[in-house]
Design goal:
alpha/beta, TIM Barrel, 12 helices
């Protein structure tokens, strides 16, 4: 299971990187607005610099031409950018076109570009010019996911929590999709999204999602447990007592 953060907050990403467990970041227009972002390009490039992981950046156009134009622009900001497209008819058209086009990550305007080791690594691997990876978002059925993969998506993002909120079973969707991909030997990764609590993370891992993306609050809850804190305190108290006893001898 790969752990992604669903955020646009630089400090949250920086903290998760320091833990050594972050493998990607998913953003959306709501996260960007909450982070107070005014210059999306510079913000995304800073995320890439901090994390050096795939960063999903979502288009806001509603028509295929607009989505392709925005996605092409985003893919040029950094070789780590994954273009996030809605799973609609227009989105499928855009997925098919973008996934078969080639875009060079010029990293124009990036404050870190002149001596960036990330860019140097991609250049050495001859991956600055590539077909953009697509993250198909707003998925609520298996069929939507299969269509997105057929159109060229590399990732599909079923929204688990939103399905649960309307009385459907989001984890079952992930399980069904994972089973079908195994049976069909279909490439593509499942990003379980809209996770509302730590139990969701365990459930989607069991169901077969390769990736779970979540808020920083949920990521923190995965680490914390009262018995861990109590056990650590007990160990430290025993150690303090043992040191006091040894000093008295």
């Amino acid at each position: 299971m790969e752990f992604y953060l669903d955020t646009a907050q630089l400090d949250e990403v920086r903290t998760a990187v320091s833990w050594g467990i972050l493998r990607g970041v998913t953003t959306n227009p709501s996260h960007v607005a909450r982070a107070g972002v005014r210059d999306l390009r510079r913000h995304v490039q800073e995320l890439c610099w901090i994390a050096d992981v795939p960063i999903s950046v979502e288009v806001v156009a509603l028509d295929a031409d607009g989505m392709v134009a925005q996605g092409t622009e985003f893919a040029g900001w950094s070789p780590n950018v994954v273009v996030k497209l809605p799973t609609t008819v227009e989105g499928l058209k855009a997925m098919a076109r973008l996934s078969h086009s080639e875009v060079t990550a010029s990293c124009q305007g990036c404050a870190h570009a002149p001596d960036c080791p990330i860019r140097a690594r991609f250049a050495q691997q001859q991956r600055l010019r590539r077909r953009p990876e697509i993250n198909a978002t707003l998925i609520f059925t298996v069929n939507q996911a299969l269509l997105a993969l057929a159109a060229g998506a590399s990732y599909v993002s079923p929204f688990v929590g939103r399905l649960d909120a309307v009385g459907e079973d989001g984890v079952a969707l992930v399980a069904d999709l994972a089973h079908i991909l195994r049976v069909q030997q279909q490439p593509g990764k499942i990003i379980a999204a809209a996770l509302r609590h730590p139990v969701h993370v365990t459930a989607v891992a069991r169901a077969g999602a390769q990736i779970a993306t979540m808020s920083f609050a949920i990521l923190t809850q995965l680490v914390e447990h009262p018995l861990t804190a109590a056990g650590l305190e007990a160990f430290l108290e025993d150690y303090r007592r043992s040191q006091e006893g040894s000093q008295g001898q």
